[in-house]
Specification:
By secondary structure, the chain is α/β, with parallel strands linked by helices. About 45% of the residues lie in helices and about 15% in strands. It is built from 26 helices and 22 strands. The strands form 3 sheets. Strands 7-14-13-9-10-11-12-8 form an 8-stranded mixed sheet. An 8-stranded parallel sheet has the order 21-20-19-18-17-16-15-22. Strands 3-2-1-6-5-4 form a 6-stranded antiparallel sheet. Strand 1 and strand 2 form a beta hairpin. The two termini are about 60 Å apart. The model has no long low-confidence stretch (mean pLDDT about 90). The chain binds phosphoenolpyruvate and magnesium ion. Magnesium ion binds next to helix 20.
Length: about 725
């Protein structure tokens, strides 16, 4: 392999060597092209003129069948096989017995290696193994790009084929960059061993260490007594003790492979077989086996887990089966352009964190980990939910243009940062941002927000491995207030339950979690939890203002009850001589429609209110916000909902109670325009929306808009389509949307 010869010469030598070693009259290599055709690349025994000429489609003939099924075929009489196709240019009619094995890499078929004999013989198990081992060497040649030089320019090889996969858009944005595998496949370069005995001993040692490390993980206090983590690890332990698996690896060692090459070979075979499974349970187990094989290879090669952020390219796109939120944070934000996962859902923790960091994320992309190689060019489209691996030049150009356009817009918005947030007709609007993690806070200055209008405290709980203790909560709130540097922060008490499950908190199954035992309901029923949080907040905000609001209040009494808990904690702290906040302002999120009919009572109790339009709208229309079938069925700009929002802002004004709106509506320029028209003057949104909303309002004559829009909310108005009206108005008066 080390000889300085061309790729073609090397392949030619390999086929001669194999043929003489296994006593075959024919040995041929077929390589899979990007157009799905297997092309003859080298042969000993068949017509040499057929090299680079003879070809078969995947699925066609015996060679095509091996590629399609990724399984060896061992036939004493090839012509009797129903799949046999005769290629006249090769002159293979003289041969009867046939053995072909797939050329596999990470379970992916890159070609087929074949031997043939005139006699009717059945090849021995040893010969099959030997051929498979050689196929691994050829696979590495293909992967290393050695065959590119002799490949047809038009089509190229399958391994470098552009791949377009569709997944689910989880965090918006577009990223162009190069693949970094989260758990990088260790490339096994040392394939052949002289001393099988020594390799067996190495394998034994590594398996022992692997088992111990899994036992350690299972015994460690970090893993909950039940639940997903544990199941995965139990499955791991089972596989790690599986005799069949280990026997196969030992067999491959006896056939001359190094221990790590043997593990890789067995895994590649298993992968190729299991990839065809459609059963989700079995596919899940394949992932477990993959993980286990990777761990074992690392044990054998003495490598650590994870990749070092110092080795990251400037434009890293992390590709992983799945990863924890904390692991993403470990990478640091600077060099990451995107994230692609085989798993991940809209409410996964990793999604929450990716969104918070502004990293485009596409999830549920099948098999991306085995399709991608470290360093491959890749594009993540977090808007369309698409991934382009090794993109064609035109795709790359189109996306570069898209990214440049977005960057130009961002630069425009950055310039607006220091400009006042005032409408064209001189009305001040307060734009605040929503946050939930410490990593969000630098945005407060960067995006020029007036404060944090909603701090979702549950995020700290969702990314943690175990319940954050009082001190940890306190430390976080302190850091938040410090980072805010005097700007107001509105904390919201824990909104867990429902679909925001904490892995370490036993949750009960509910038919209807959004309307179930969540948020303040849970807090009032488990006052220990809520009081701990209240104490953490009170002690974090000593000498400062503490603004705290409660989510999912359905009746005023719940707020009164929550306030009494704050008062209790406060008097307890005072009694024991602790410092307390200078001022405390307590508010309510208006997100359950029942509150709309208790506004008079509510507004005499609270210091402020904040409209949670996400929940308010889902309950208002009875349309689950997380269910894509119905989430967009009703328009937030329909007259009914706008009237409800107007009732809230009018009532608040009547009682001189400050009102904010902190749902997603606030962050969309068209919807924000409607909110301003209704009378809202304080909006809180994700940091990325601050620029677009500010650009909108600075070009808006708000007095004129209200005068034109509000009559349309009256019953019987002939032009009650507010969305159309707003679009037309923006167009006619040059409002920047
Ligand atoms: C809302 O419901 O509008 C809101 C802001 O809170 P969350 O999205 O966290 O439920
Ligand atoms: Mg809500």
């Amino acid at each position: 392999m080390a000889e300085p010869i061309t790729a073609q010469e090397r392949l030619d030598k390999i086929v001669v060597l194999i043929a003489s070693n296994v006593v075959a009259e024919v040995c041929s290599v077929y390589i899979l092209r990007a157009d799905g055709v297997l092309e003859l690349y080298a042969t000993e025994g068949l017509n040499r003129e057929a090299v680079h000429q003879a070809s078969l489609r995947v699925g066609q003939g015996l060679v095509g069948l091996i590629a399609a099924e990724a399984r060896p075929l061992n036939l004493p009489n090839a012509r009797a096989h129903p799949g046999f196709t005769y290629l006249p240019e090769t002159g293979e009619d003289a041969y009867n017995s046939f053995l072909g094995v797939p050329i596999l890499r990470a379970g992916r078929t890159l070609g087929v290696l074949v031997i043939q004999n005139k006699s009717h013989r059945t090849y021995l198990e040893d010969e099959v193994e030997a051929l498979q081992t050689t196929a691994m060497i050829i696979a590495e040649m293909v992967a290393a790009g050695e065959l590119e030089a002799i490949a047809q320019k038009k089509t190229g090889l399958d391994l470098s084929r552009p791949i377009h996969q569709t997944g689910v858009a989880l965090a918006e944005g577009v990223g162009l960059g190069h693949v970094v595998l989260h758990e990088p496949r260790v490339v096994v370069t040392n394939l052949i061993a002289e001393d099988s005995e020594a390799e067996s001993i190495r394998l034994d040692g590594a398996i022992g260490r692997l088992r111990l490390s899994i036992d350690d993980l299972l015994a460690s206090g970090d893993i909950a007594a039940s639940g997903e983590h544990r199941e995965v690890l139990e499955a791991f332990r089972m596989f790690a003790h599986d005799r069949g698996w280990i026997r196969k690896i030992e067999e491959a060692i006896r056939n001359g492979l190094t221990a790590e090459a043997a593990v890789e070979k067995v895994q590649s075979d298993t992968r190729a077989r299991m990839l065809r499974q459609t059963d989700p349970y079995l596919r899940e187990r394949l992932h477990d086996l993959d993980d286990l094989a990777h761990r074992l290879i690392r044990e054998l090669m003495g490598r650590q887990h994870g990749s070092l952020s110092s080795e990251l390219p400037q434009d890293a796109i992390i590709v992983a089966r799945n990863m924890g939120a904390a692991e993403l944070l470990d990478y640091g934000r600077d060099r990451i352009r995107g994230l692609v996962l085989e798993e991940g859902g809209p409410t996964s923790h990793i999604t929450i964190v990716a969104r918070a960091l502004g990293i485009p994320l596409v999830g549920q992309v099948d098999d991306i980990v085995s399709l991608a190689d470290a360093g491959d060019a890749i594009i993540v489209d977090g808007e369309a939910g698409e991934v382009h691996l090794r993109p064609a030049t035109d795709v790359e150009l189109a996306y570069s243009e898209k990214v440049r356009f977005r960057a130009r817009r961002q630069a425009q918005y950055r310039r607006l940062r220091t400009k006042p947030s005032v409408t064209k007709d001189g009305i001040d609007i307060s734009l605040q941002m929503n946050a939930g993690l410490l990593v969000d806070l630098p945005q407060l200055a960067e995006a020029g927000a007036a404060g944090v209008g909603l701090f979702r405290t549950e995020l700290q709980f969702m990314v943690a491995l175990s319940f954050p203790r009082m001190k940890e909560q306190q430390a976080q709130y302190k850091q938040v207030l410090e980072a805010a540097n005097g700007k107001p922060v509105t904390f919201r008490s824990l909104d867990i339950g429902g679909d925001k499950v904490l892995p370490y908190l036993r949750s009960i199954q509910e038919e209807n979690p959004a309307m179930g035992w969540r948020a303040l309901r849970l807090g009032l029923d488990r006052p220990g939890l809520l009081r701990t949080q209240i104490r953490a907040l009170l002690t974090a905000a000593t000498g400062k203002e503490l603004k705290l609001m409660f989510p999912m209040v359905a009746e005023v009494q719940e707020f009164v009850h929550a306030r009494s808990l704050v008062e209790k904690e406060l008097s307890h702290l005072r009694k024991h001589g602790y410092d307390v906040p200078e001022t405390i302002r307590l508010g309510v999120m208006v997100e359950v429609p029942s509150l709309l009919f208790q506004m008079d009572e509510l507004l005499t109790q609270v210091d402020f209110i904040s409209v949670g339009s996400n929940d308010l709208f889902q309950f208002f229309c009875a349309a689950d916000r997380g269910n894509t079938r119905v989430a967009d069925r009703f328009d937030t700009l329909d007259v009914g909902f706008l009237r409800a929002l107007k009732t809230i802002v009018d009532k608040a004004r009547e009682y001189h109670v400050p009102v904010t709106l902190c749902g997603e509506l606030a962050g969309r320029p068209l919807q924000a325009m409607a909110l301003l028209g209704l009378g809202y003057r304080d909006l809180s949104m994700s940091p990325a929306s601050l620029g677009p909303v500010k650009a909108m309002l600075r070009t808006l004559d708000l007095g004129r808009l209200s005068a034109r829009m509000l009559p349309r909310l009256e019953p019987g108005h002939p032009e009650a389509n507010i969305r159309e009206f707003l679009l037309r108005y923006a167009d006619d008066t040059n409002v920047e949307l």
